[in-house]
Design goal:
The complex is a heterodimer of chains A (78) and B (351). By secondary structure, chain A is of the alpha+beta class. Chain A is 37% helix and 27% strand. Chain A has one domain: Glutaredoxin (3-Layer(aba) Sandwich), CATH 3.40.30. Chain A has 3 helices and 4 strands. Chain A has a 4-stranded mixed sheet with strand order 2-1-3-4. In chain A, strand 1 (2-7), helix 1 and strand 2 (32-37) form a beta-alpha-beta unit. Chain A is globular, with a radius of gyration of 11 Å. Chain A starts with a strand and ends with a helix. In chain A, 35% of the residues are buried. Chain B is mainly α. Chain B has a domain at 91-206 and 246-350. Chain B has helices at 11-35, 37-48, 56-86, 91-98, 105-116, 124-133, 138-150, 153-163, 165-188, 197-201, 215-250, 257-260, 267-275, 282-294, 299-311, 314-320, 326-350. In chain B, helix 3 (56-86) packs across helix 8 (153-163). Chain B starts with 10 loop residues before the first helix and ends with a helix. Classes of the chains: A alpha+beta (78), B mainly alpha (351). At the A-B interface, helix 1, helix 2 and strand 4 of A face helix 4 and helix 6 of B.
Chain lengths: 78, 351
Amino acid sequence: MMNIKILGSGCANCKRLEATVRRIVAAGAIDAEIEKVTEYSEIMKWPILSTPGLAINEKLVSTGRIPKDAEIAGWLKG
Amino acid sequence: MDRPTFLSLSPNLRSDLRTYITVGLMACLWLLAYSIIQPLADWLAYGVLGLPHGSRLGEAVAFFLYDVTKILLLLSGMIFLISLLRTFFSPDRTRALLGGKRQGIGNILAAMLGIVTPFCSCSAVPLFIGFVESGVPLGVTFSFLIAAPTINEVAVVMLFGLFGWQVAGLYITSGLIIAILAGITIGALHLERYVEDFVWQLPGAQGELKETLSLADRIARAWDAVKEIVGKVWPYVVVGIAVGAGIHGYVPESALAGIMGRNAWWSVPAAVILGVPLYSNAAGVIPIVHALTEKGAALGTVLAFMMSVVGLSLPEMIILRRVLKPQLIAVFVGVIAFAIILTGYLFNLVI
């Protein structure tokens, strides 16, 4: 199973990124667990200066923006 | 050998070319639209709506249509260019540039980078932690955190569109000076102990994600930024300009000279206090303030009000409270408020 982490403390873009990821996961019937990381002490263990961050299988793929659907889908395919 | 035709190009190159052509066409359309704003507004107000020339309502409507079109065009065009420039900067790069810089030089650099580095106040906490953890001095970090939201693209573009480049320039310059001096002051006070303890216990900072972007990628990102920012502020722009047009048409000349003129000494601090709860509404506030200056409000008072609206925001204080103890928040607010009030008096005195 894939592990997806949304790193961000509840900002508007963090919520939007989460919704986008959930939609893509559901659409592709991807076997993934989506985790929200909202504590700064946890978030800052990642090399992040701007939220939201997106990590897939413990690998950071984007920070500070909401990637395009196609980009996210590409990362989820591996 | 065949000459390459559009269709024989690789799909990537084709999509890049399509992007450049679209940008070129948009630029032409933008210039055309910008050059016909006045006749368009007059035609709509007096022709389509049939309002009589010289009537109060007719003038207010024409004024409204002109300003709305002009400001929305300016915002789209300028935000596109600024966002394109910003794709060449990142918080991570700024942090690398600021690391190991001394007070003074560091503060100046931080304030200037605050203008061009992409920044959202929702990311103030990770940015703050990342900066101080990697050894950027506290005062230098604050110079950045003051300049970045204060000298913000929407405020600057609207000041430029409504007041002209001189006032926009004054705003940028005083914003920079305030950010530099406030940062130096906070640095000199050695307030590191008022940063929440957990910040110092986090693991050391690492480099952020490295991305390689093509010019077409940068254009796409800049376009996304235009859609997001203009999509968010346009209702405020419309309402603000409508109220401004009302004031323009119906409030008597110099009605405000008594309460907002340069001789009313208390109006500068009052403007600063009034500005704090109006966070994020710079887009709606500037047109109203512009109309007020026509009716006798002093420019220094108006600039102080603007800076307070944009630079002293309650939500940002609440966000920063996660990493700063109340004492440091108080110093932060106090230093900026003091600097803004001083700026207001200075401009009222000089202009």
